[in-house]
Amino acid sequence: MDLNPFSHEFHADPYPTYRWLRDHAPLYRNDALDFWALSRYRDVLGASLAWETYSSAEGTTLERLDPHLFDVRPMMIFLDPPRHDRLRKLVSRAFTPRRIAELEPFIRATVTRLLDRLVADGGGDFVTDLSMPLPMEVIFTLLGVPEADRATVRRWMDVSLERDRDTPVIPERAITAMAEMMRYWIEFVDALRRRPNDGLVSALLDAEIEGDDGARTRLTDGEVIGFCNLIGAAGNETVTKLLANACVLFARHPDEYAKVRATPGRIPDAVEEVFRYTSPSQYQGRVTTADVTCYGRTVPQGSRILLLTGSANRDEREFPDPDRFDVGRRPEQHLALGYGVHFCLGASLARLESRVALEEFSLRFPRYVVDESRCVRVHMSNVHGYEHVPFAA
Ligand code: HEM
Fold it and tell me: How far, in Å, from the CA of 216 to the mean position of ligand 1?
């Protein structure tokens, strides 16, 4: 059995491969694609915590990004401490739990508006009509992206993550989209520098913290541009995938859906079970900074290694009957939002958006069916989910 993160068959159902890896090759080596992988929960958790040995500095996907690409516009997700911590600390000042909680009425109003059309039509495409526009409106409102630009920037994001079948070579269209997006954020931050407003990005341009040496520092424009680029993508793609995965799962498991409808207070647990069961981010890539020996083999320093979150969350050593979708499971310890220093900065926002969307959706669509023969999957390196999910009441 081989693990090929670019295989369309693998995207359709990665779980038999993961189970085989956990049982037969918990430290897996792929010579053809030159990478290693850890698949058991305990190993993924341990490596996520050991950032000194498992570095993010060369990107977090299997396909390697040019490490110099982000020198001027760094993104915290591709940095190790202490550079990572400085950025995270500064950003966390503007990205506060209060600022996130205040978004709930706006999120509910956006969900309601999007659902009104779906109700009138008796269904539609869950992704294009709901799970894609919702996080887009939320993140872009938070960042202050003008409405006229939103669909274009969102499209660049999708294309920048697209990968061709069976190859780690980043397609030309993805590279062009990445460049377009970066140019957009450069102009965006430049405009805010000249005319600040009361939004998150202006707050970031202003934020100051005291360093270990007592000196006060601010984010550079490049760091703010990197941040916009990062949360623009991280805040959009994953929530879109999580919600559409939930839509498909509840259609497949009407009994579990009935439990949620009967007791809406169970929705937060149900969201965690969707995170666990079909993790939107299937692996976190790292590079080893030293030789690592486990399961009798040595991973040399400088090796690419994938921490297979999607597999860890289905590990029978951690979760009883892991392939059963069970909204009563309370799987708080899943790894779908990462662990350790890179734990998802947007976790509370992702949970808030997902809860509100499912609360409102389940009220309006107590029964629905998904036409799985017409569902279309995305083909990205570590992002798992759909670009079309047709459903009807
Ligand atoms: C379903 C929703 C989401 C999922 C599954 C998800 C997943 C993840 C994972 C697995 C990581 C860890 C990456 C690593 O260890 O290399 C991460 C980090 C991150 N996420 Fe999320 N995320 C979600 C939503 C969001 C949202 C809504 C935002 C922003 C508003 C966001 C912003 C970030 C950022 C900035 C990081 C990097 C944190 C750091 O390096 O310290 N994410 N996310």
Answer: 27
